[in-house]
Amino acid sequence: MQNKLRVLVTRVEYPQSVPWIWGSLFVKPRALYLHIPFCKAKCLYCDFDSRALGGCELDTAMDRYCTALTSQIDTYGAAGELDEVETVYIGGGTPSLLGVHLVSLVEHVRGYCDPSEFTCEANPESFTLELAQALREAGVTRISLGVQTLDAGELKAIGRIHSAEQAMLAIAQAKAVGFSTSCDVMCGLPGQTLESFGRTLETLMTLRLDHISVYPLQLEEGTPLARLEEQGRIAVPDEDFQAACMDLAAEKLAGAGFERYEVASYAQPGQRCRHNIAYWTGKPYLGLGRSAAGMFDIPAAPETCNLGTYPFYTSGANLSSFPHEGRMRYRQLDDEGVQFDTEYLTPREAIAEDLMLACRMTDGIPLDLLTRATSCIPEADLRAACETAISSGLATWDEDALGKGALRPTHLGWLDGNELFGLFWGLAE
Q1: How far apart are CA 37 and CA 49, in angstroms?
Q2: Which of 26, 99, 224, 389 would suit a FRET pair with 45, their CA atoms being 20 to 30 Å apart?
Q3: Is the pLDDT of residue 26 over 90?
Q4: β 259-262/265-267 pair status
Q5: Nearest to 43 by CA among 92, 89, 101
Q6: Which domains are delineated in the chain?
Q7: Least confidently predicted of 7-11, 120-124, 139-143, 203-207
Q8: pLDDT at residue 108 in the model
Q9: Residue 308, pLDDT score
Q10: DSSP for 356-417?
């Protein structure tokens, strides 16, 4: 293994004239995310940007917001910046709360691109058969339902307003109109047991789902659930319980034909979420709407690119003096798309981020990514991180019959994800 590690990062060579391979050519976004910041009620654990409104106030806010979001779509679409979009994801919040507004947004996006995967998030209480049919006709291919649990007591404990029956009906409606159907499940909920978590999984597995994501509950500072826990009014299961739930999910879902392709994601063959994979594999993505995030690699020759279309790049900055080569991350701060938080990553930080994110996936860090990383990271440092990951039991080196290999996370690597991620993010410096 030591000898293999000495060559695995140099087996493929790239021209020395390309010091930053991603910065040498501006690539249009491959993925598009639209954020919908509205909910009927805020869940007790949620710290996402969403507004719990009702009645006329909600209708007015949605009208205004969708007008602004449509204008942003038009700006990028008219400039040709959506031409190469492969996946679209509308999340929130609760996109299904928009009703006909959501259908219009889908149609509008479809006017500028033809993604092979188009996902909309939905909550069971606002997902109807009528809406499902309209979204399918408009071009949505995939529905992601926020189920979380099928236990009535657990739903109440986290402030969900749907019932188990509504969740199962929503799944049936999504399947009936031909959607690839995913649902989110949570573990580590107040009052949850390993048995109740297992019952939720077993019921869901009977519903012919295509994809299931399993997330441990995170108590975010400032949320109602965090305050209840601090006051001793609720008890949240510890990390050992969450780990046991994640292991149980892996066992049960594998038995039902699901493939684990990411630490929290399981799919039937051919049903992996391509949009999320884009995030984890460094593809450029455009985020539109309040609190939406995006990522682009900065071109070495910005004058050759259509950067004037991107206000997160030009807003508040002198373009001529802005860093060239590297990566830009941004988050939209307002409804209209004129205020942004931006973060610049050096080429070395960007490739370290790609290495770290690859550790989330069962495919791991492929040989070609390790090789590309040597354009920015000293080979000795990279080799040391790989060797530490293997000797610590966090990863293993797998090689196929063709000699192509990858550094793949082990079960321990996922349980101690922060340690594994830290090894490769540490290469940023």
Answers
A1: 6
A2: 99
A3: no
A4: antiparallel
A5: 92
A6: 2-18+348-428 (1.10.10), 31-276 (3.20.20.70)
A7: 7-11
A8: 96
A9: 59
A10: HHHTTBTT-EEHHHHHHHTTTS-HHHHHHHHHHHHHTTSEEEEE-TTS-EEEEE-HHHHHTH
